[in-house]
């Protein structure tokens, strides 16, 4: 009986500490997101790009000539099950270890 009581107290203390830590982290995140950093006051020292006020874009947002890409980076299109099956079959047939002769035709579901 006393062992159950110790477990309940221990897990209650751990839960309270975890919740307090979560709220402290949320408060810190909120404060940090409101703060603006200038290059002179940056915690990492001076900006390596000089004193220009313009931000340098990430390299993945630039094309091969250094111009900013103004098109969507992720394009999703829906295809039918048959198209997906044909594409997968073509990839399988083109793989080095596959034999190009099928033993059984596929049945439609």
What does the model show?
This protein has 109 residues and is an all-alpha fold. It has one domain (2-94). Helices cover 43% and strands 0% of the residues. The chain is built from two helices and no strands. The longest helix has 33 residues, at 2-34. The radius of gyration is 29 Å and the shape is flat. The termini are far apart.
Query: What is the terminal-to-terminal distance?
Result: 60 Å
Q: Main beta sheet, described?
A: none
Write down the secondary-structure element order: HH
Give the helix level as a range of percent: 40-55%
Silhouette: flat
Number of discrete helical segments: 2
Tally of strands: 0
Class per helix and strand makeup = mainly alpha
Oligomer: single chain
Rounded to an integer, what's the Rg over CA atoms?
Answer: 29 Å
Q: How many domains, as an integer?
A: 1
Topology record:
Layout: H1 2-34, H2 81-94
Key phrases:
single chain; 109 residues; mainly alpha; 2 helices
Compact description:
The chain has 109 residues and is an all-alpha fold. The chain has one domain (2-94). Helix content is 43%, strand content 0%.
């Amino acid at each position: 009986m006393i062992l159950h009581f110790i477990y309940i107290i221990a897990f209650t203390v751990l839960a309270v500490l975890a919740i307090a830590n979560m709220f402290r982290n949320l408060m810190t995140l909120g404060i940090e997101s409101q703060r603006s950093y200038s290059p002179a006051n940056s915690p990492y020292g001076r900006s390596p790009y000089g004193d220009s006020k313009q931000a340098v874009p990430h390299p993945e947002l630039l094309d091969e000539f250094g111009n900013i890409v103004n098109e969507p980076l992720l394009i999703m299109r829906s295809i039918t099950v048959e198209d997906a099956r044909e594409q997968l079959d073509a990839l399988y047939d083109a793989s080095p270890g596959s034999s190009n002769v099928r033993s059984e035709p596929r049945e439609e579901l």
